[in-house]
Amino acid sequence: MKNLKLRTKLFLLTSTAVMGSFIFGVVSYATLEKVKVGGPIYNDLRLDFDLHSAITPPSLNIMPFRLLARQLLLDTDHEKVQSEGCRKV
């Protein structure tokens, strides 16, 4: 390496940086294609989530419905009650 001209050393340094950037770009693109929405990993995760949702029972949390019923009871505007009641449930 000591015997090489400065021009050759700079060329080697530049070509190494360019090749490293190119390889980084290719690996990044391949990774993004693999994990993007609709990609193979996303589809596997979605399948697992759907399976989990199918076998777990629904939660028995009735608080949102109690809150809605309370809001509907306390509100005096009947048109607003009709529109919000149908929209929220």
Rg is 30 Å
| Strand element count | 0
- Tell me the β content: under 5%
Question: How far from one another are the termini?
Answer: 75 Å
* Unreliable stretches covering 5 or more consecutive residues: none
Count structural domains.
2
Roughly what percent helix? over 70%
Main beta sheet: strand number and arrangement? none
What structural class do you assign from the helix and strand content? Answer: mainly alpha
Q: How many distinct helices?
A: 4
**Helix and strand string, N-terminal first?**
HHHH
Q: Overall 3D geometry?
A: elongated
Average pLDDT confidence is: 85
What does this structure look like?
By secondary structure, the protein is an all-alpha fold. The protein folds into two domains: 1-56; 61-89, no CATH class. Helix content is 78%, strand content 0%. It has four helices and no strands.
